[in-house]
Design a protein that fits this description.
pyruvate-formate lyase- activating enzyme; 37% helix; alpha/beta; binds iron/sulfur cluster; Arc Repressor Mutant, subunit A; globular; disordered N terminus; 16 helices
């Protein structure tokens, strides 16, 4: 059994500067999109122009040869985690993976035909649900299906990643994942505190994760990343200090820290969480501060909103070279313009289109069985959307916007085009969250926790939602 905990660690002290940052956060707290796309998913509609997408795909052009990213959604989980907001099916019924793989195979045939089979797959991610719900034979079969219909790469620079649930993966499966071509692994850790783990129905002791990490390291994966969540029941800055100490002892290359959004009306599993056990907003802000300061003190670089990476990680280099992007999987290297999502509920971003697959498994099966593509919602991006997407994605990834470059690329005069947006940013400038001059907008170190707030004035749909529909609900920005 692995035991590598360091015995001492500097204590996190709450200074007046931290208090000031927390007061600021309380002032800016509101609901807002995470901007994994723009337009954001609530803007996707059933009556999107699918015929135009199909016609564009029929034409030859660079888009039939350009690199492509793949995302595969594998929705099954053996147990429910109460905080979960993913599209998943909790089941232990035998044969469900078989039924799903059969449909996925048909979708892979259809979609590869449409997007082009020769496009190099520079990035691939299997998410869920729990991808390791599949057994070793099924994982091998699925990778074989993909290799038969797409041009998978064996080059070192490829980024093929898979999410792993430490509770369900067998030790021998790690070797198999390496063998079938994955070079990155992402572990759902969330929190190491036993009380927190019990309260969200996800029990995975530190020793279990540490053994798994040792196994992953022994197979020389390029990168190991942890997902953490703050804002869970029974969490406090005391429990978080201990979790961070344990995380740091395992030294993952990347750490993504997500803010738990308690939306029990939308996500039924969250109804099992007693609201009274959730940390108070000030405690949550304190945890956010603590995560940021502790991980940076431990040598991690803060990337974008919520990612921390070791300085030699490719994401750190990508940030320095302006090759960082934000998409449905969070932050990643920009290696391909198009992302094809496969499987129930997955979203594709291809050319001028966002396309989302049917979100219900049984309906997804019916679409596939009747020979139809499973897209049921989407949107075509307008030139105005592209401009606003460029601004939002620059700010949220690079923490700056080059105004001159934006003017040249889109043929605009920034200050004449966005007077209201610039006025809305005024209070944030006065609070020291960003700096604006005629050449650029720069997010300051102080402004980083407020990236979603900083982007929101440029989101034309936030105020102009359709009058016959209620405004979309988003999670808290801070
Ligand atoms: S958090 Fe992950 S493992 Fe847990 S129920 Fe949701 S998708 Fe499944």
């Amino acid at each position: 059994m692995t035991s590598i905990l360091p015995s001492t660690q500097a204590q996190f002290e709450i200074t007046p500067a931290h208090r000031a940052e927390m007061e600021l956060a309380a002032r800016y707290a509101c609901e807002g999109p995470r901007y994994t796309s723009y337009p954001t998913a609530p803007q996707f509609r059933q009556d999107f122009p699918l015929d135009q997408y199909l016609a564009w795909q029929q034409r030859d052009g660079d888009h039939k040869r350009a690199p492509l990213s793949l995302y595969l959604h594998l929705p099954f989980c053996k147990d429910i985690c109460y905080y979960c907001a993913c599209n998943k099916v909790v089941t232990r019924q035998k044969g469900v993976a078989r039924q799903y793989l059969d449909r996925l195979h048909k979708e892979i045939e259809q979609q590869s035909q449409l997007v082009g089979k020769q496009r190099p797959i520079t990035q691939m991610h299997w998410g869920g649900g729990t991808p390791t719900y599949l057994d070793d034979a099924e994982i091998t079969e699925l990778m074989h299906m993909l290799a038969s219909h797409f041009r998978l790469l064996d080059r070192e620079y490829r980024e093929y990643s898979i999410e792993i649930d430490p509770r369900t993966v067998e030790a021998a499966t790690i070797a198999l994942l390496k063998g079938v071509g994955f070079n990155r692994i992402s572990l759902g850790v969330q929190d190491f505190d036993p009380v927190v783990q019990r309260s969200v129905n996800r029990i995975q002791p530190y020793e279990m994760v540490a053994d798994l990490v040792a196994n992953i390291r022994s197979h020389h994966f390029r990168s190991l990343s942890f997902d953490l969540i703050y804002g869970l029941p029974h969490q406090s800055h005391h429990t978080m200090a201990e979790t961070l100490r344990k995380v740091n002892s395992l030294r993952p290359d990347r750490i993504a820290c997500y803010n738990y959004a308690h939306l029990p009306q939308r996500f039924s599993s969250q109804r099992a969480i007693d609201r009274l056990t959730l940390p108070a907003p000030e405690e949550k802000l304190l945890m956010q501060q603590m995560i940021s300061h502790t991980l940076q003190d431990a040598g991690y670089l803060h990337i974008g909103m919520d990612h921390y990476v070791l300085p030699d990680d490719e994401l750190a280099l990508a940030l320095a070279e302006g090759r960082l992007q934000r998409n449905f999987q969070g932050y990643s290297l920009h290696m391909a313009d198009d992302l094809l999502g496969l499987g129930v509920s997955s979203i594709s971003q291809i050319g001028d289109f966002y396309l989302q697959n049917e979100r219900d498994v049984e309906s997804y099966y019916r679409h596939i069985d009747s020979g139809k593509l499973p897209f049921t919602r989407g949107c075509m991006v307008t030139s105005e959307d592209k401009l606003r997407r460029h601004i939002i994605m620059s700010l949220i990834s690079d923490l700056r916007l080059d105004i001159g470059d934006c003017n040249r690329q889109f043929g605009i005069d920034f200050s004449a085009k966005f007077p209201e947006e610039l006025a809305a940013l005024g209070p944030m400038v006065r609070d020291g969250l960003l700096e604006i001059n005629e050449r650029e907008i720069t997010v300051t170190r102080r402004g980083r926790p407020f990236l979603r707030n900083i982007c929101m004035p440029f989101d034309a749909y936030l105020t102009a939602h359709r009058g016959d529909q209620p405004p979309p609900r988003f999670s808290a920005t801070i």
